[in-house]
Amino acid sequence: MSRQNINDLLVFLAVARERSFTRAAAQLGVSQSALSHTIRALEERLGLRLLTRTTRSVAPTEAGERLLKTVGPKFEQIDTELAALTELRDKPAGTIRITIGEHAAQAILWPALAKLLPRYPDIKVELTIDYGLTDIVAERYDAGVRLGEQVAKDMVAVRIGPDFCMAVVGSPSYFERKPTPKKPQDLTAHDCINIRLPTYGGIYAWEFEKRGRELKVRVDGQLVFNNMSLRLDAALAGMGLAYMPEDQVAPYVADGRLFRVLEDWCAPFPGYHLYYPSRRQPAPAFAVLVDALRYRG
Fold first, then answer.
1. Whether the predicted model's global pTM rises above the 0.90 cut
2. What is the DSSP letter of 268?
3. 130-139 as b/e, with b when 16 or more CB fall inside 10 Å?
């Protein structure tokens, strides 16, 4: 169907429903003479009279009534679908894919999602626990979460958590057979639970800082893990010293199941940031998530 026929049908529907050229012209924002010309042209192409006109009224003919009943609902359906698409644009909905480290997922993202998602049932979130600096554009992620110092300069970065400290901890049973380290260099004589992180080229060197002096210590031990839960389990079991986020071990330190050492050497790290491409136009669902995660401390 040509665009002219579609426009002419829309004019006919407006006049037939309003039963007035005056009201239809006001609704469509055109002159009455333009409407009359359009209706005449449509009737000539169809070879049928569609409207009966008098000085006081306008009414569909039998052919016009049939056209109104058959074509009218189809255009109404189109209007309804277009309105639904507009609502989808404005309504937070859809899937958000995020690459994130284990600690940030547990400490920051999950508590926020547990509050957010019940209020927005049409939002879905897919989290991938990943210790590498994944290319979120190439891998088609909506966003990533990393420490502030790890976010590329060409990304939009939104702070989602406070600075935090790492902690070196061991169980009482471990310290029954090993002396308490007084400085980071003492760790070389201890059984340490190592961390394998691809972002650091393999085994992670434990980082320390005191009064502006920075140290990285490569430790040794029987165990190497690439997640937090196993490192924590091993430390609780007395298998060695673990280097863990402070908030993850605080309950165990508080109840005496773990002892913390070298606390004066554990300076704060920059907090976690959510990052995404600067050219991205945030969808409503993504904007809602960013607002829920934004750190306001």
1. no
2. P
3. bbeebebeee
